[in-house]
Write a structure and sequence with these properties.
By secondary structure, the chain is mainly alpha-helical. The protein is built from five helices and two strands. It starts with a helix and ends in a 5-residue tail after the last helix.
Length: 167
């Protein structure tokens, strides 16, 4: 099996195992639930690159890949929620950012299954590896993902600078 294809499967398995492990260590703790949800979203998204390349019928592979992107559109909101929870951010601005993230994920959810998000699969010629082609809504998702990750990373850096010792 090709490395490009198998890496999606390995990521799926590793993230799913991490989610199960973390959740099992504190199934009632909000932080464990959020981290497990984050790992599941990464797992669900990453298995798509495996499935789209092992399913022989490309129209079926496209449907499966679109389903996998359902996990991807929830990743920014869940990750932001996890980071805000672990850093004890409770301001009104942070709540608004989190609501906006969940609203954006909710809006993107039904669009994932349309040609507006991924119209078809395309092959990288030198590798024979299929990837998704981007529709107009995919660029919206990509922008949302980038802005959310910038927010999360800048927030994390600011919080790390504030904390000391075991914090």
């Amino acid at each position: 099996m090709d490395f490009y294809v198998s890496s999606g499967l390995y990521s799926f398995i590793a993230n799913l195992l991490i989610a199960l492990f973390v959740y099992s260590r504190g199934p009632r703790k909000k932080i464990n639930i959020l981290f497990a949800m984050f790992s599941i979203t990464v797992s669900g998204w990453s298995v798509g690159s495996f499935l789209e390349n092992v399913i022989p019928d490309k129209s079926t592979a496209l449907i499966v890949l679109r389903f996998n992107y359902l996990f991807a559109v929830w990743l920014p909101a869940v990750y932001m929620h996890f980071v805000y929870t672990i850093t004890n951010k409770n301001s009104k601005v942070d709540h608004l950012k989190l609501r906006f993230a969940y609203l954006t994920s909710s809006i993107l959810t039904p669009i994932v299954f349309t040609k507006w998000f991924i119209p078809h699969l395309q092959m990288i010629p030198s590798t024979h590896f299929y990837i998704s082609s981007a529709g107009p809504a995919y660029y919206l998702f990509f922008s949302y993902f980038g802005i959310a990750m910038y927010e999360v990373l800048s927030h994390t850096i600011l919080q790390v600078r504030k904390y000391s010792g075991s914090q």
